[in-house]
């Protein structure tokens, strides 16, 4: 039977009759009162004939409204009334608990820390990606001065602290709200950032190889060799697993394409730079294995990203630029070619020291040919990275407005991490061709990317304080593309208990 909207005047709101159960009629009154809120009649949500208040309904249902401060006050008064009437009916349960699980209202300016932890998404690992990238850039600066290494070590250690915080916070999220674990893999946007945790781990390994091996004994070399292959296996599983999940759970259109689709390939793209760094300190046999494995996985990551490049260009040609809030993600397209330049040039430079004379018939000649080919081929890839950088930067010109353009999101770290790869690629090209001018350009870019990291980090802290992130419907876990955030399991139990008790009282009242 269809519900026919009709205007309900305030005078027609039913009053509570003394013989009716207090709690059930309380919710009935609220349900009828809310029909006329804002002068609009909304369909009643009925369960077994009982009207469910709007703030107790599921997100997405007709008439749903986010609980606000008035609801909490009304709940408090109802609980007091419940206690007063307990002498006449001992079976009345306490008023149902209230949870903010999906959206927020400006009238509600406080949220329990557990609810904020609920929205600690995988995107926070982009922060550790960017911080580790800064430490990597500082290590590769060719013009050294006293204290520069210390600055790099500070970023490296700070990144480890941030990584531990991320792991603890997201573990608390999944422990406190178990339903969010599966939801994070099913969400069309949040799941794209799951590989950020793997990239952060790999970036820390690169920093350890840069700042730690020269300060410790051979034991760290052996440990990093094992961790390299572990990270390589993890990168393959994370990249292929996320893409497989995407392709088996949802159909995508070119119109919905964003550069973030490249992101699951990123764990593979940092294997090559790690191999290039690690090959400098390992024995010859182990170093050659690392170079071959790193070159293979780097090629897989770049080719996967290159195929998605085609979809990105086609989307730009047919649908124009993405919406402003998604444009920071355009810098993700800089990373694949930039990381590949740094990786291939680094591994080609380490190859002559790690091949025996019989390698490919003539070890020294084969390694020299590989180095020459790598140097010239990487010029193309470096130019491609620069081209994507200029396109991505130009796309933000229309966003540079006095009002700030668009609100902060964790994708702002796309301004930093892919561009750290561009800086290291610039230094690698300058070293390969012995161009001091290119290296000076790289130093200027280093200053700019460190400044960008500082600005984004400050904006993140301000956004947390202003409730722009870590807040319902403000992060990558928001309702999107038909995906609805799951209800807390505790809330489901509370609502079922409320309906069951109300139905039992209603039946008992009818019998009387």
Overview of this structure, please?
The chain is elongated and about 95 Å long. With 512 residues, it is mainly α. It starts with 21 loop residues before the first helix and ends with a helix. The protein is built from 16 helices and two strands. It has a two-stranded antiparallel ribbon. Helix 7 runs antiparallel to helix 8 and helix 12 packs antiparallel against helix 13.
Write a compact overview of the structure shown:
This protein has 16 helices and 2 strands.
Search tags:
mainly alpha; two-stranded antiparallel ribbon; single chain; 59% helix; 2 strands; disordered N terminus; 512 residues; elongated; 1% strand
Main sheet summary: 2 strands, antiparallel
- Helical coverage, percent range: 55-70%
Mean pLDDT comes to 79
Can you list the strand order of the major beta sheet? 1-2
Judging from the principal axes of the Cα atoms, what is the shape?
elongated
Number of strands: 2
Structural class: mainly alpha
What is the gyration radius calculated from CA atoms? 29 Å
> How many angstroms does the end-to-end distance come to?
29 Å
Strand proportion, as a percent range, falls in under 5%
- Poorly predicted sequence stretches spanning 5 or more consecutive residues: 1-44, 87-108
How many H/I helical runs? 16
* H/E element sequence: HEEHHHHHHHHHHHHHHH
């Amino acid at each position: 039977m269809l519900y026919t909207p009709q205007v309900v005047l305030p005078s027609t709101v039913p009053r509570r009759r003394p013989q009716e159960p207090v709690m059930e009629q309380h919710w009935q009154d609220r349900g009828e009162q809310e029909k006329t809120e804002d002068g609009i009649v909304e369909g009643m949500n009925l369960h077994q004939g009982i009207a469910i208040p709007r703030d107790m309904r599921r997100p997405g249902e007709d008439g749903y409204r986010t609980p606000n401060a008035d609801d909490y006050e009304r709940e408090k008064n109802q609980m007091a009334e419940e206690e007063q009437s307990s002498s006449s009916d001992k079976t009345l349960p306490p008023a149902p608990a209230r949870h903010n699980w999906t959206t927020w209202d400006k009238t509600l300016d406080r949220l329990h820390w557990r609810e904020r932890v609920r929205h600690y998404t995988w995107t926070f690992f982009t922060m550790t990606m960017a911080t580790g990238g800064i430490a990597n850039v500082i290590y590769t600066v060719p013009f050294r001065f006293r204290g520069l290494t210390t600055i790099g070590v500070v970023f490296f250690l700070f990144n480890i602290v941030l990584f531990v915080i991320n792991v603890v916070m997201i573990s608390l999220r999944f422990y406190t709200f178990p339903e969010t674990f599966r939801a994070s893999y099913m969400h069309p946007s949040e799941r794209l950032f799951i590989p950020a945790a793997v990239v952060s781990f790999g970036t820390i390994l690169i920093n350890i190889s840069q700042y730690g091996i020269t300060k410790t004994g051979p034991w760290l070399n052996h440990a990093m060799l094992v961790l390299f292959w572990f990270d390589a296996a993890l990168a393959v599983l994370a990249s292929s697993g996320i893409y497989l999940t995407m392709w088996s759970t949802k159909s995508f259109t070119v119109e919905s394409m964003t550069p973030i689709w490249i992101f699951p390939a990123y764990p593979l793209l940092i294997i090559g730079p790690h191999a290039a760094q690690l090959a400098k300190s390992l024995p010859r046999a182990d170093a050659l294995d690392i170079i071959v494995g790193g070159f293979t996985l780097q090629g897989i990551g770049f080719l996967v990203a290159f195929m998605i490049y085609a979809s990105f260009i086609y989307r730009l040609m047919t649908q124009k630029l993405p919406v402003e809030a998604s444009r920071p993600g355009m810098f993700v397209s800089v990373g694949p070619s930039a990381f590949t330049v740094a990786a291939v040039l680094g591994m080609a430079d380490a190859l002559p020291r790690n091949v025996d004379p019989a390698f490919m018939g003539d070890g020294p000649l084969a390694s020299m040919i590989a180095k020459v080919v790598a140097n010239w081929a990487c010029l193309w890839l470096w130019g491609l990275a620069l081209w994507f950088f200029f396109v991505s930067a130009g796309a933000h010109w229309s966003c540079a407005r006095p009002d700030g353009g668009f609100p902060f999101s964790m994708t702002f770290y796309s301004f930093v991490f892919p561009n750290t790869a561009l800086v290291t690629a610039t230094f690698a090209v300058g070293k390969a061709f012995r161009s001091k001018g290119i290296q000076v350009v790289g130093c200027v870019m280093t200053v700019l990317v460190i400044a960008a990291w500082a600005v984004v980090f400050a904006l993140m802290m301000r956004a947390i304080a202003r409730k722009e992130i870590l807040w319902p419907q403000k992060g990558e876990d928001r309702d999107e593309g038909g995906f609805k955030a799951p209800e807390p399991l505790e809330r489901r139990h509370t609502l079922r208990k409320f309906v069951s008790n109300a139905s039992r009282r209603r039946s008992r009242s009818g019998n009387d």
